[in-house]
Amino acid sequence: MVWDDATDVLIVGYGAAGVCAALEARAAGADVLAVDRFNGGGATELSGGIVYAGGGTTIQREAGIDDTADAMFTYLAREVGDAVRPETLRSFVDSSPDMIDWLMGHGVPFEASVCPYKTSYPDNRYYLYYSGSECSGEFRALTPPVQRGHRAKGRGASGKMIYQPLARSAARAGVRFRPHTRVVALESDGDGRVIGVRARSMAHAPLLIRKRFAAMASIAAKPGIYYPPLRRVLERRLDALEHRYAREVRIRARHGVILCAGGYIANQDILARHAPGYTGGLALGTTGDDGSAIELAVAAGAVADRMDWRPRSGRTTRPSPARNRIRSVSRGSSPGRSSKVRSRCWTCRSARN
């Protein structure tokens, strides 16, 4: 097989999950290449920029908020139900303060300005608030409510203040980034082990075409997220440019491919199969949240799990049909054996995976 490029670790999808995976792989000494179908940033860059963290973070302590890991675990165990295993939840809670420090160490700004009341999203005076359901009667009876929503410091929707500092840190660390590159297949060796990808890249298109592609991708993401007809028109034009100008490339991954390309909220067919109750809602994600990474992993021998996961009755947080995962198995093996495809496709609520 002829390869056009090679790296130790290949990241597919370069939003918050992708850039954090890239930073950690680079810190471990790996050569890292990240690719993204569009401009990078994913849904995180468009979001409100909230990182749910507690147990006594640096920001909480600075604000005088008394929180413990046990209190946070007690609340979340009731809130998330069976969405994650107890040991996974415990690990998330116990590492929560370190996660905030890690993000700050890579330039993500937070501030200990406490919003004293419950709100869906605070104004620009406040950057630490009740982002969950801690104040509701059911949960208040379990443990005293505290503010755990760490909003990145920035005016308006501040998701850009999570992704952009992380991306700059990754670039300084030597992570290579190739935008406008759609992965269409995982390449495997004779034993079924994933050794790279096949992709279509706009890297060789004329400069004017690449600029046009980037501009349309940006508009399709936002405001296209709020006006689906505009997004659909731009998606067709993006597909047409890609069909005409993109070239096929093969990228070798010596030590692994990490899939971080989102869920399936933008794919009506998959949504209708697994979460039909949400087909009429606003697709709060990007065009790239079309389930393609999940399908790539399944085609390579992975096993999809919790594709139809729903919030339990009574929850007040927004349903996320994209919250699913890939269990990785070798071709011809049963679930639970050692993996040849190592991939998890979770909606990234905290920035560090």
From TrEMBL:
Protein name per its UniProtKB record: FAD binding domain-containing protein
Origin: domain of life: Bacteria
Domain FAD-dependent oxidoreductase 2 FAD-binding: 8-307
Keywords recorded for this protein, A-Z: FAD, Flavoprotein, Oxidoreductase
Chain residue ranges for the region called Disordered: 308-343
GO molecular function, one term: oxidoreductase activity
Cofactor: FAD
Organism: Nocardia mexicana
Gene3D superfamilies, per the entry: FAD/NAD(P)-binding domain
Ranges annotated as biased composition (Low complexity): 314-338
PANTHER family the UniProt entry points to: 3-OXOSTEROID 1-DEHYDROGENASE (PTHR43400:SF10), FUMARATE REDUCTASE (PTHR43400)
